[in-house]
Sequence to fold (491 residues):
Amino acid sequence: MHDLVIREVTLYDGTGAAPRVADVALEGERVAAVGPVPAGGRETVDGRGLALAPGFIDVHTHDDFAAVIYPGMAFKLEGGVTTCVVGNCGFGAAPHAAAAVMAKTLHPNLDLPAWQGTAGYMRRLEAQPPGVNIGVLVGHGSARLAAMRMENRAPSGAEMAAMKSTLAEGLEAGALGFSTGLVYDPGRFAATEEIVELAALMRGTGALYATHMRDESTGLLDSVREAIEIGQRAGVPVQISHHKASGRAAWGRVGDSLRLIEEAQQRGESVHADQYPYTAGSTILSAVYRDGRLRGAIGDLEPEDVVIASTASHPGWEGCSLARLAADMGCSAEQAAERVLAADAGVTVVLHAMSEADVRTVLRHPSTMIGSDGIPTLEGKPHPRLYGSFARVLGRYARDEGLLTMAEAVYRMTGFPAAKFGLRDRGVVRAGAAADLVLFEPAGILDLGTFEDPKRAPAGIRAVFVNGKRAVAAGKATGARTGKVLRRSRG
Ligand code: ZN
Ligand code: CU
Fold:
C-alpha cells in the first residue's frame, strides 16, 4: 500500500513537458507511481486545483554553515526548495580553518563545530541532517586561503599541491564541482592558469566548474570568455554564477554574454548559467568598497544604491543606504563605508545595480537556471532572494508576465539543474525518483518579501516533501529534517 497519494493534481514533472492531471503515489523515500493510481493508500491528499512539481533545486546558495546551525532550514523549505548546492563563489566548507573565516562573516555569533575536509563536512550533515538535501562544491577561495593565506601572487609548487589535494579530497567525497569567486580575496589573486590547472583535476569526472566571474560590469564579456576558456582547457562543464550586467555602464551587455554562451554550446561545450530574479545584488561591502572607491567588479555605484543588509555591530544601520549614513554621520559616502567596515569587516550590503530589462533577457534565455544566491544572515535584513527567488520566477515572471511558461520555469529549477549538476533521480517526478516535491497553488504562488521586509515566506506553497517526508505542511515548516547529502553521479 502507498504511504500517500496526491490525487488529480496538475503535474509539472520537471522535464519541461506541458502539465497534465495525474495521481502521484509516494512510498518511503520515493515516488512509487505516477498516473491513475488505484484507490487505497494510507493517506490521500486532494490535489484538485493545485500544482505539483519536483522540489526546487537551488544551485547557488551560501548555506554551507546555515545547514549546520539552522538545520531546520525553514527559510528555504517554505520557499519550495528541497536541495541546496553550497560552496559557491569560492567559499566552501573545507579546509575547515579557511571555512571558519567565512562562517564568521555570515554568522558572527557562531561557534562552528569541527570537521575534516569535505568528507568530514558531509559526514557531519549526515549525522545531524538538515531539512533540505545538500550538494557540495569545493571552494577555490577557501582552498587558496588555507594553502597561501592572502598572498597576491602565483602559488608555489607546494601551495598548488595543497590546493589540488583539497579539491581531490572533495571530489573523492562526492563533491559536485569546484567554484571560484574571482572578485573576492583571495580568489581574485588567481590567474586563469591557476584555475585551469585545478579544474583539470575534474576532467572526466562529470564535476563542473562554477564561477563568480572577475568582472560582471563593463568587463562582463572578457569574464565570460575566461570562464569558457577555463572549461575548454580543463575539459569540464561550466556554470556561470548569477549571470548579470552590473552597474549602469554595463547595462545591455547580457545580449552579448548570452551570445558567447550560445556559441560555446554550438561547439558542443557544456556552458550554462544561473540567475536570481531581482535587479539588486548582495555581497560583502569589502568586495564593493576598494581603494577608496565604491566600484570594482560590480560597476560604479551610487551611494544611495548601496544599502546595509546585515551587521551584528550596528543593527540600526541595516536598511540604510550609504548616502543616508553619510548624511547622518556628516561625512562623505566613502568615509561612511570606511566607518562601517571598521565596525564590522564582514558587513553585507544590497546593491541596486541591474536593469529590469537585462534580468528579463537573461531569464528568458534557455541557458539560464535559477539559483537564489541567498545569503543566510537571518538576524539582519538579508536580500529577499533568500526566501522568494523561486516563487518570484513562477508567480511574477511565468504566470503574471508570461515571460516563460510555467512548465519551462519549473524545468529551470528542477530537471535542468539536476542534469547539469549530476543529481540522479532528482528534479523529475516519475516512478522511482526521490520524493522531493512541492505542492503549490498555481494562481497564488508569489514572493512576498521586500527589501524593507525581506524575511517572508512566499504565498501559495502548500506542502513540501523531502525524501518522502513532509517538510512543509499548510505553508509552515514541520521541523522534519530528512535532507541527504547528494553526491555526484555521472548518470
Ligand atoms: Zn557570487
Ligand atoms: Cu554567491
